[in-house]
Amino acid sequence: VQLQASGGGLVQPGGSLRLSCAASGFTLDDYAIGWFRQAPGKEREGVSCISSDGRTYIPVSVAGQFTVSRDNGKNTVYLQMNSLKPEDTAVYYCAVRWTGRTCSFVPGTYTYWGQGTLVTVSS
After folding, report:
1. Alpha carbons 59 and 87: distance in angstroms, whole number
2. Do 94 and 5 contact (CB within 8 A), yes or no?
3. Average pLDDT of the chain, as a whole number
4. What is the distance in angstroms between the CA of the first residue and the CA of the last residue of the chain?
5. What pLDDT, in 10s, does the model give residues 25-78?
6. What angle (nearest 5°) sits at the alpha carbon of residue 67, between those of residues 79 and 78?
7. Measured over all CA atoms, what is the biggest interatomic distance in the chain, rounded to whole angstroms?
8. Residue 85: which of 15, 6, 10, 8 has the closest Cα?
9. Between the CA atoms of 37, 61, 102 and 41, what dihedral angle is there, to the nearest 10 degrees?
């Protein structure tokens, strides 16, 4: 079982990035997949989730800025991030809930985590 997050990098304020979360060893659309981020000195924060039935959830903090989608054929979930700001700088993680098909923004409800990908928003 593996989750591989990728797509991070350095981007200027106002720019966009698309992160990918590729799964192996299991089928993504059987579970809820969440995206979280953690900035230095801060707690891990949920920024999106897609449930097994394809419903998407975006917290108010990034609503209108982030969207999440899934490509079942590629067994990959994407996080599209637009209008990026310096405060979006963080390590971004994807995670899977083995125990549920519905979404949660509570990190402790997720069972397996990918390794994270660093997003730096700076001019």
Report:
1. 16
2. yes
3. 96
4. 37
5. 999 989 999 999 999 999 999 999 999 999 999 999 999 999 999 999 999 999
6. 25
7. 41
8. 15
9. 30
